[in-house]
């Protein structure tokens, strides 16, 4: 899948794509960035045997993780560093093995200290998960000559 910049400043886009691709937890799970735009992030992962629970189905924790990552990175497109303080998730449907899971996160509102976002997670055209999150701003991203922080 080709990485898409949907209107972000190129420096911020490069910073975020590099940060996402080098995040150890995302690497462990196989999460990749597909698209970034103002207040928007799309990430994906292909479900694998390593993602299953004791019942042999894809673990809901993978859906929670990718939804949270999509929301958090949508907030980061605003140049904001933030951490999740609350997240609610609805697991609508199961995912089969070897399916591409796509999470689309968008910012609902970003205030001085708090930001609110939502995510929808799909396998093909099938809705798998919905999520809403609250994030606390910890600072601003300065892309001028700074290193990515993982």
Q: Structural class given helices, strands, pairing?
A: alpha+beta
Which whole number gives the mean pLDDT?
Answer: 95
Written as H for each helix and E for each strand, in order along the chain, the element string is EHHEEHEEEE
Shape: globular
Word description of this protein:
The chain is globular, with a radius of gyration of 15 Å. It has 150 residues and is α+β, with helices and mostly antiparallel strands. Strand 6 and strand 7 (126-140) form a beta hairpin. Strands 1-2-3-5-6-7-4 form a 7-stranded mixed sheet. It has 3 helices and 7 strands; from the N terminus they run βααββαββββ. 23% of the residues lie in helices and 42% in strands.
Mind sketching the topology for me?
Blueprint: E1 4-5, H1 10-21, H2 24-29, E2 32-37, E3 40-46, H3 60-76, E4 80-91, E5 100-110, E6 114-123, E7 126-140
Parallel strand pairs: 1-2
Antiparallel strand pairs: 2-3, 3-5, 4-7, 5-6, 6-7
List keywords for this structure.
150 residues, alpha+beta, 7-stranded mixed β-sheet, 3 helices, 42% strand, globular
Short description:
The protein has helices at 10-21, 24-29, 60-76; strands at 4-5, 32-37, 40-46, 80-91, 100-110, 114-123, 126-140. It is an alpha+beta fold and 150 residues long.
């Amino acid at each position: 899948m080709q990485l898409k910049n949907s209107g972000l400043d190129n420096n911020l886009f490069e910073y975020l794509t590099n940060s996402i691709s080098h995040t150890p937890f995302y690497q462990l799970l196989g999460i990749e960035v597909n698209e970034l735009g103002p207040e928007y992030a799309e990430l994906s992962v292909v479900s694998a045997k390593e993602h299953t629970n004791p019942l042999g189905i894809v673990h809901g924790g993978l859906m929670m993780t990718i939804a949270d990552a999509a929301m958090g990175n949508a907030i980061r497109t605003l140049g904001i560093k933030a951490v999740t303080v609350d997240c609610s998730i609805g697991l609508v449907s199961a995912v089969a093995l070897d399916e591409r899971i796509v999470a689309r996160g968008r910012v609902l509102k970003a205030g001085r200290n708090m930001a609110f976002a939502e995510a929808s997670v799909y396998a093909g055209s099938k809705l798998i998960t919905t999520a809403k999150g609250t994030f606390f701003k910890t600072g601003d991203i300065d892309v001028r000559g700074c290193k990515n922080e993982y």
